[in-house]
Design goal:
By secondary structure, the chain is of the alpha+beta class. The chain has helices spanning about 35-40, 45, 50-55, 60-70, 115-160, 165-185, 200-215, 235-255, 320-330, and strands at about 20, 30, 75-85, 90-100, 105-110, 195-200, 220-225, 235, 265-275, 280-290, 335-340, 345-350. Helix 7 runs parallel beside helix 8. It is elongated and about 100 Å long.
């Protein structure tokens, strides 16, 4: 077996996809950092092993390798599920290509399907968010005009009423119209331009924690599972606080409504490496998980929770998660949710690199 050196395949080091090279005996001679990250093993562990030892019981992969060898042409297997020798399973698309090199005879390129699904999900989320913004603008326009007329009519009526006691009713109309107008101003008009600066994600979480405990000091337990080695990110501290608070407050209200015993929220932070967000690759990002043991999100709205005016709680505005999604997107991040009774987890991914975020004057 010819031993491959880093100089042989230097161009493969920086690829985001997983690359594994095999010799004529189907032994591993090289894998790039992308493969080490995706499959969670190191080159020292598998170089020299035969492919059926690295991915045991994967007949489809071995068939793809044999077809590429026999036909002497690239062979692709779509949506393949493979398991490593550590019993970890991955959904991938694999392309096997014969090559002529002193150090290798086959190059295997693996593209994780979960990454492709995430990209597709992000694109749908962006389209959805743009539609949400348009809906909110139209909603603001439709509400403001009759709201102004309603308030003006109440003022005129107040001057015509013979009894001062009756003016209490017109004052209710006027005050509620003003309150609704303030809600429109706060939620539906374009928000201020984000103020990006170095921000500690744990300071954000501690602020949210203190606000939640002030609102529900006896009924909620908030656990913290922090990776204190995480660096600062470049972000708008207040908007990040609001995004996390909207998510966590929803959880508290749901658990309170359903009288969840031993109500608990967990804030967990970890580093996420080699992340693709909106088709841009980041070396490192912050992964924040907000988990609760509440009743879960009703299945009929589970796929619509980020739409405006969709709420699983009676009397809810249905705007909290829409705004959370907007604020996370302003940071070039991603937010997603998995929910079932007894376990709901919102995951927020935020890139750390300062060059990733540029102020915008047209943020909603």
């Amino acid at each position: 077996m010819v031993q491959a050196t880093p100089n042989h395949f230097a161009g493969l080091e920086h690829l985001a996809t997983a690359i594994i090279l095999l010799d004529s005996e189907q032994r591993v001679v090289y894998l790039n950092p992308g493969a080490e990250i995706i499959f969670a093993f190191s080159a020292n562990q598998i170089v020299g092993l035969k492919m059926h030892d690295v991915f045991p019981d994967c007949d489809i992969l071995m068939l793809a390798i044999n077809n590429a060898i026999q036909q002497n042409s690239p062979f692709r297997e779509h949506e393949l599920t493979i398991s490593t020798h550590r019993h970890q399973s991955f959904a991938v698309t694999c392309t096997v290509t014969p090559i002529e090199s002193p150090a290798a005879r086959l190059i295997l390129e693996f593209q994780p399907m979960d990454a492709q699904l995430r990209i597709a999900r992000e694109e749908r989320m962006l389209i959805q968010q743009q539609a949400n913004a348009e809906l909110l603008r139209n909603l603001a326009h439709e509400i403001r005009n009759p709201l102004g007329g309603l308030r003006g009519a109440a003022q005129l009526l107040e001057h015509e009423l013979p009894s001062p006691t009756l003016r209490e009713y017109t004052q209710v109309i006027i005050k509620e119209a003003d309150r609704l107008q303030m809600l429109m101003d706060r939620l539906l008009i374009p928000h201020r331009v984000p103020k990006y600066q170095p921000t500690n994600i744990h300071e954000v979480l501690e602020r949210v924690r203190s606000l939640l405990l002030a609102e529900s000091p006896q009924s909620i337990l908030i656990k913290r599972d922090y990776d204190l080695s995480l660096p600062e990110l470049i972000g708008d501290r207040e908007k990040l606080i609001q995004a996390v608070l909207n998510i966590a407050r929803n959880a508290v209200q749901a658990m309170r409504t359903h009288q969840t015993p031993a109500s608990q929220i967990t804030f967990k932070t970890r580093a996420e490496r080699q992340v693709t967000l909106a088709r841009k690759r980041y070396r490192v990002a912050i992964k924040l998980e907000i988990t609760d043991n509440g009743p879960g999100i009703p299945i009929e709205i589970r796929d619509k929770i980020f739409y405006p005016l969709v709420s699983g709680r009676e009397g809810g505005s249905g705007l909290g998660l829409t705004l959370a999604q907007t604020f996370v997107t302003q940071h070039h991040g991603m937010i997603e949710c998995e929910s079932q009774p007894g376990h709901t987890c919102f995951t927020i991914i935020l890139p750390i690199e300062t060059s990733a975020i540029k102020p915008s004057t047209n943020q909603q």
